[in-house]
Amino acid sequence: MKDSIDQFLLHLGDYTILLGQSFRCCTVDIFRRQGPRMAHVLEQMNEIGVNSMGIVCLVVFFVGLVIAMQTSYEMTKFGTEMYVGRVVGLTMFRELGPLIATIVLGGRCGAAIAAEIGTMKVNEEVEALRVMGISPIRFLVAPRILAFTIMAPVLAVISDYVGIIGGLVLAITELHLTYWQFVENMMSGMIVKDFVSGIAKSVVFGLLVGSIACHFGYRTEGGADAVGRATTMSVVTSIVMIIVSDAALTAVFVYIL
Amino acid sequence: MSTTAISNSNLPVHIEVKNLVRAFDGRRVLDNISLKVHKGETMVILGGSGCGKSTLLRHLIGSLKPDAGEIWLLGKEITRMQDQEFAEIRKKFGMLFQGGALLNSMSVGENVALPLEEHTNLSPEIIDIMVKMKTGMVGLTGFEHLMPSQISGGMKKRVALARAIAMDPEIIFFDEPTAGLDPVMTAVVDLLINNLCKKLGITAVVVTHDMASVNRIADHIAMIHKGKLVFEGSVPQIHASTDPLVRQFINGEADGPISFQQSGDDYLKSLFAST
Amino acid sequence: MAYSTRIVDSVAILELDGEVDLYHSPRVREEIGKLISKKNPTILINFQKVSYIDSSGLATIIDAFQKMRAYKGRLALAALSKPVLSVFEVARLNQYFQIFENEGAALGALTTPKA
User: Fold this and answer.
1) Contacts of B119 in chain A (CB under 8 A)
2) Distance of CA B22 to the CA centre of its chain
3) How far apart, in whole angstroms, are the C-alpha atoms of residue A83 and residue B138?
4) A199 or A30: which leads in pLDDT
5) CB-CB: which of C26, C86, C91 is closest to B123?
6) CATH code, domain with C46
7) What residue spans define the domains of chain B?
8) Which residue in B95, B98, B105 is closest to A131 by CB distance?
C-alpha cells in the first residue's frame, strides 16, 4: 500500500513537472523563440485530429443511434417519442460527444504517442536529443500536448453533430418523425451553455489525454515490455481521468455556473 | 597500477576528470577516477562489461552527476553548471550512441541536419550542402533520403557519426562504436574515427572493450576495473604491461584476476535443496 | 567578424577577418550574396585574416560557387592559412577551387585575359 502511494506521488510529481515545462514551452518560450516548432504541431494536429476523424465519427454515430433506440423504447410507452430529438441533442452536446471523441482519441492517439515516446526513450533517442542540446519537451512533448488540446474540441464538435445524425436516422426510420420535427424539438430545449460546456470539457479532456500519454511515454525505462506497459497505463489512466474530470466538470457546470 | 608520462602534454587539456566518485545503492561504480585528455588525442576507456566505463561516459556528457569530484570540459567545470550554461558547452561536443540513436521518424539527411536547424541561423541551402559534406565524410553520399529503418546497423552508426560531427564539435564521445558490427565494418568505423579525429583535430573519448579497435585508434588508454582506474598509458605500454589484470584483458583469458564465478557446491545445493 | 569589399581591375575582393564559423557564416553569405546579385564576373575571397573556418564556412563558399556558375562567374580564394587550408583539404575541396598564395598572385592570374 505504502509502495503504491509512493509510486502514485512520484508519478504525480513527474507529471506536474512535465505539464509545467510544456506549458512554459507553449507560452513564455514562444517569445524567446524557443516554442514548439509549428511544423511539428501541425503534423501532430493532422495525425490526432484529421486522421482520427473517421473512427470518431463511426463510433459516435452508433452511440447516437443507440441512445435514440433506448430512449424511444421507453418513450413510446408514454407517447412521448417526439422528444427523442431533445434527449439525443442534450446528451450529445453536454456529455457524450466530447466524452466519446476523447476516449477514442485516448485509445488511438494516446496509445500511439505513449508507445512512440516510450520507444524513443528505450532507443536512447530522447537522450540523444538532450545531448544535442535539443529539449525533448520542446521537440516531442509540447507539440503533442498542444495538438491534443487544440484538436479535442474540434473533434468534439464534429462528434456532437455526427451523434445527432445517428439519432436522427433512427427517428426518421423507426419513429417516423420528420427531419424538422426532430430538429425543432432538439433546438427548443437547448441553450448555448449546453454546447459551450461540452466544448469546454473536451479541451480539458484533450489536455489530459495528451499529457498523460506523453507522461507515460517519457517515463519509460528498460525494454519492449516497458513500452507495452507504458502504452497500457496511458490508455487506462486517460480513460479514468477523463471520466473523473468529467464528473467534476459536470458538477461545476450543473451546480455552480 | 601504472601511470605514465602523457604524450603531447604541451597541448591544451580538453577533458579533465578529477577524483570522480559515484555510488549506486552504496556500491562505488566510479571510485576516485582521474583522467586527462589533451586536444586532438583519442582516449580509449577500456574495461569489461559493468566495470563503470559507460557510467563514466554518462558523467562526461552531463547526463549523470557525480557524488564527488570534478569534470572539466574545454576549460570549464561542468558538474555544478547551470543547465543554460551547459547548453553552450553541449554545442561543442558530439556523441555517438551505442545503437546510433537516430530519430526513426526522420530521414538520414534530416537526422544529420537536425542539430544545425536547431542551433544555428544557417539557411536551408547551406544546411543542405553541409549535410551532403557530412554524409560524404562517412561514405554515405546519396543515402540522405532513406529512413533509419531502411539501412543496416553499420550504416546507422555512420549516420550517427555524421550527425555527431554536424556542428564541427571539438570533442566527440563514442559509446561502444563497434559493438555489434562485423570485423570489416568495425575496421571501417575505426578508420572513420581515425580520419575524422586526426584530420580535423577533434578530441575523442571512446568507450570500448574491443581490443582490435583499441590497437587501431588509441593514442592513450585508460583501463577501468570495478570502478577503479587500473591502467593508463599508450598502446605499446598496454601490450608491455605485466599487470595480470591488464594481461588477462588484452589476451582475453577466462582465468585470471578478473574472475568468473564458477558455480560450485552452491549450484548443487540449489538444485537439491529441499523446499 | 569584420568585412571589407573593394573592386580592383574588375575583380571584386571580399576580405574576411576573424572566424568563419556556424554563427558568422550567415553574415559571410550575405556579403557574398551582395556581390553575386550584382553579377560580379570575378570574386576573390581573401582569407588573410581568417584564423578558423568550419564546414558551414565551406558550405557557404560552395553555395557561392554554385550560384556564380549560373552566370559563368569565377570564384577564387587567396591567402589561406595552414589550418584553414587543411579544412579545405580534408573535404577535398582544394581540388575544386582556385586557391592562390596571396592576393597579389590571385589578381595577377585573374586579371590576365584568358587565352
Assistant:
1) 133
2) 18
3) 72
4) A199
5) C26
6) 3.30.750.24
7) 40-62+91-257
8) B95
Asked if B15 and B60 touch (Cβ cutoff 8 Å), the reply is yes
Cα(B129)–Cα(A102) distance, integer angstroms: 44
Query: Which residues from A are below 8 Å from B when comparing CB atoms?
Result: 116, 119-120, 123-125, 127-134
Q: Which residues of B touch A128 (CB under 8 A)?
A: 95, 97, 101-103
CA distance B159 to B166: 10
CATH placement of domain B40-62+91-257: 3.40.50.300
Q: Is B194 on the interface with C (CB under 8 A)?
A: no
- pTM score over 0.90: no
Strands ordered across the beta sheet of B171-175: B93-96, B171-175, B203-208, B42-46, B220-225, B228-233
pLDDT of B6 higher than 60: no
Query: What is the residue range of C8's domain?
Result: 2-78+90-98
- Give the integer Cα–Cα distance in Å for A85 and C41: 78
C-alpha grid cell, residue B169: 564539435
The answer to whether B and C touch (≥3 CB pairs < 8 Å) is: yes
**C57 to chain B: which residues are within 8 Å by CB?**
none
Nearest residue in B to C55, CA atom = B130
In a domain, C111, yes or no: no
Q: Do B118 and A123 touch (CB under 8 A)?
A: no
**Where in B64-219 does DSSP place strands (E)?**
68-73, 76-77, 93-96, 171-175, 203-208
Nearest Cα to Cα of residue A134 among B172, B87, B94: B87
Question: Which residue reads 550517427 in cell numbers?
Answer: B160
CB-nearest partner of B90 from A116, A124, A131: A131
CA separation, residue C71 to residues C39, C63, C64 (Å): 7, 14, 12
Of B99, B104, B115, the CB nearest to A132: B115
Q: Is residue C104 part of a domain?
A: no
A-contacting residues of B 107-126, CB under 8 Å? Answer: 114-115, 118-119
> Residue A169's Cα: distance from chain center in Å?
26
Rounded Cα distance, A13 and C74, in Å: 62
Residue B251, all three cell numbers:
589476451
Residues forming beta bridges with residue B222, ordered by sequence position:
B45, B232
Question: Which residues 106-145 of B are in CB contact (within 8 Å) with C?
Answer: 116, 119-123, 125-127, 129-130, 133-134, 137
How many angstroms away from the CA of B161 is the closest CA of chain C? 15
Q: What pLDDT digit, counting tens, does each position of A197-250 carry?
A: 999 999 999 999 999 999 999 999 988 899 999 999 999 999 999 999 999 999
Residues of A in contact with B102 (CB under 8 A): 125, 128
**Residue-averaged pLDDT of chain A:** 93
C31, part of any domain: yes
| CA atoms of A114 and A123, how far apart (whole Å) | 14
Answer yes or no: is pLDDT of A49 > 50.
yes
Range of the domain at A25: 2-256
